[in-house]
Specification:
Layout: E1 16-19, E2 25-27, H1 36-39, E3 52-54, H2 55-61, E4 64-70, E5 73-78, E6 88-93, E7 96-100, H3 108-116, E8 122-124, H4 134-141, E9 144-146, E10 167-171, E11 174-178, E12 187-191, E13 196-198, E14 204-208, E15 211-219, H5 232-243, E16 249-251, E17 256-257, H6 262-274, E18 282-283
Parallel strand pairs: 7-8, 8-9, 13-16
Antiparallel strand pairs: 1-2, 1-3, 4-5, 5-6, 6-7, 10-11, 11-12, 12-13, 14-15, 15-18, 16-17
């Protein structure tokens, strides 16, 4: 059990339901009437009304897959899947395993695989769009759950044991930095030894169809689905965070962009700060000139 944990009146004993339209999980005594994530301005409501799935129903509908992308880094994802469909990453370290983001639903086989890797000591996510099935990971492995206090209102289905403000290093060499912007509590994870930045939805990429780890374009948004740009002050905060992190790869909840690092990201932001913020994709090659 996580240090400082105090159980509260059966809240985590309620069944969990996931929204078919966006993948956000809620704990409720019955299927919820609506989904707060779909009603948020960064998303859209389902045109034919809401459909919620229990854990077993979601497991039956959305097969779970996993692979080791680099030594000690595992990716979990669902295909086919409805909703936002983020990936989950499990990072193995000498001090224990850290999970970052979650896929929409973990199969029993996937959970057993994680157990075989040593379970999970720490768990976090960049923002609510990538929470996925954090509820399953917390229920199964009881890790320390580290989330920014600024997004606490979105964590009703979870038990946050380690809230933080702007920075946290929950395991040696793994740093959480709050960028804000896309969400008030949006955060990135920096793996110092591997020089990988898990950027959440701070950045978006279009990938080479022949190489899913090679990004062709990069962009940044306040709201991706609606094409809303970030503000100038939000971009400045992004830049302040990214400038201090020496990363050579930038991985989103959907794809690992191995060919984009700090130089390209700062060039994108500087370009928008020099004119007017926009949400258009920018070819990576133009940021290297």
């Amino acid at each position: 059990m996580s240090p400082g944990y105090l159980p509260f009146a059966g809240a985590l004993d309620l069944p969990a339901y996931t929204c078919d339209n966006c993948g956000f999980w809620q704990r409720h005594f019955e299927a919820p009437a609506a989904c707060p994530m779909c009603l948020d301005a960064r998303h859209v409501v389902p045109q034919k009304g809401w459909q919620f799935w229990t854990e077993r129903e979601a497991q039956a509908r959305f097969p779970c897959h996993w692979e080791e992308l680099e030594p000690g880094i595992w990716r979990f994802w669902n295909d086919p899947v409805s909703g936002i469909g983020p990936s989950a990453y499990l990072i193995q370290t000498p001090a224990g395993n850290m999970g970052f983001e979650a896929c929409p639903v973990f199969s029993e086989a996937a959970l057993q695989h994680i157990a075989g890797l040593g379970g999970m000591r720490v768990l976090s996510a960049s923002h609510p769009h990538a929470y996925g099935a954090l509820v399953q990971l917390q229920d199964r492995f009881d890790p320390e759950l580290c989330l920014p206090a600024a997004d606490f209102a979105w964590s009703a289905a979870l038990q946050v044991s380690w809230p933080y403000d702007d920075f946290l290093e929950p395991l040696p060499g793994l740093e959480l930095h709050r960028t804000a912007g896309h969400f008030d509590g949006h955060a990135v994870l920096f793996d110092r030894s591997r020089k990988i930045l898990y950027c959440g939805d701070a950045l978006k990429f279009e990938l080479d169809p022949g190489d899913f780890r090679r990004a062709l374009t990069i962009s940044a948004h306040k709201a991706f689905v609606r094409g809303v740009p970030l503000t100038t002050n939000e971009l400045r905060r992004y830049r302040d965070v990214f400038a201090q992190l020496d990363f050579t790869q930038t991985w989103t909840p959907f794809e690992p962009a191995a060919n984009c690092g700090r130089a390209e990201v700062l060039a994108l932001i500087d370009g928008m700060l020099a004119t007017r913020p926009h949400a258009a994709p920018v070819p990576l090659d133009t940021l290297r000139r």
